[in-house]
Amino acid sequence: MRKLIYLVALAATGTLAWHYPFLFELPLIVAIGGAWWAFFAPNGAQEK
Fold it and tell me: Can you tell me where the transmembrane regions are (predicted)?
């Protein structure tokens, strides 16, 4: 489920950056933070 949320968030921010190019850093931030959350965070981290 985390991987799906990660991909949806990445697609949403990518689309936003496509329409507003000055937000080009937003998908990069989401990609880095989301990858940590989706793949490396402990399972209990989402409940806290």
Answer: 27-45
The pTM score is: 0.77
CA distance 10 to 31: 6
Convert the pLDDT of each residue in 4-34 to its tens digit.
999 999 999 999 999 999 999 999 999 999 9
Cα–Cα distance, 14 to 9 (Å, whole number): 8
